[in-house]
Amino acid sequence: MARVKYLLWLRDRIGVGEEHVESKTLRELLEILASKHSELKELERRGGLVVLVNGLAVNPGRNVELSDEDEVVLLPEVSGG
Fold it and tell me: Could you tell me the pTM of the whole model?
């Protein structure tokens, strides 16, 4: 099971800081999470979701294979002025 961590305001909106999800690929993981959390679906649709897999930034559209030891961090794109 991949460990998923939520950062910044996303953690507050989802209501948990971390959860474990059974998934073979990043694409599948994001689909599972989007079905559970509408905030993620909207962020991804707008292109505002930042994804890190084991500390490396990954395009959410890529179909990266995941293993049980992987850590996936999800956070909203940071902007400001």
Answer: 0.91
Q: What are phi and psi of 38, to 5 degrees?
A: -60, -30
Matching CATH number, 2-76, of 3.10.20.30, 2.60.40.10, 3.40.50.2020, 2.60.120.650: 3.10.20.30
Q: What is the pLDDT of residues 25-37, one digit of tens each?
A: 999 999 999 999 9
What pLDDT does 80 receive?
59
CA atoms of 47 and 21, how far apart (whole Å): 22
For 23, 36, 71, 77, the CA distances from 68, given in Å and listed in that order, are 9, 20, 9, 26
